[in-house]
Design goal:
Blueprint (H helix, E strand, L loop, with lengths): L2 H148 L10 H6 L1
């Protein structure tokens, strides 16, 4: 390549880079303007954001205080519940123990009463009913003997209807 061509190529490259620099300058100027507009908008919104931030901080602080109070009260309620459960367990344990003792005592009383009833029944059988049975048997025997002596025997000639059918 000759010198002139090289010079033209270099001049073209310088022109293209100059155009690129001008375009880049226009873009940077546009970005500057956009940044200025955005800054102005942010500055107008900033006081409201600061107020909102202050309000949210106060709400968060109040929420923390309320949460701490709720946590304290819930811990007190849980402690009271645990204490009452221990008392209830103690009361139920005492009631169960007393009930078991009462049931054992009632069972002993019932067993004693049943033993006494058995003894009484035994005494009645041996002291009253045996002699009565003996007297009753003696009376039945005397009655049968007296009836045998008093009644007359049927003669073979006076057979009853049952005896005739049998014979």
């Amino acid at each position: 390549m000759d010198q002139m061509t090289l010079l033209y190529v270099m001049a073209g490259a310088v022109v293209v880079s100059a155009i690129a620099l001008v375009i880049q300058m226009c873009l940077l100027f546009g970005m500057y303007k956009a940044t200025q507009t955005l800054r102005d908008r942010v500055l107008t919104v900033m006081p409201r954001v600061e107020d909102l931030l202050d309000n949210s901080r106060s709400v968060v602080d109040e929420g923390r205080a309320a949460l701490a109070e709720i946590r304290q009260k819930s811990n007190l309620i849980l402690d009271t519940g645990h204490r009452q459960m221990r008392q209830l367990e103690s009361i139920l344990g005492d009631a169960a123990e007393r009930t078991n003792r009462q049931m054992a005592h009632a069972e002993a009383v019932v067993q004693d009463a049943l033993g006494r009833v058995e003894d009484t029944v035994q005494l009645v059988h041996s002291g009253v009913l045996k002699p009565l049975r003996g007297i009753s048997s003696l009376a039945a025997g005397l009655g049968a003997a007296f009836q045998y002596l008093v009644s007359r025997r049927p003669s073979p000639g006076n057979a009853t209807l049952d005896e005739e059918m049998y014979i």
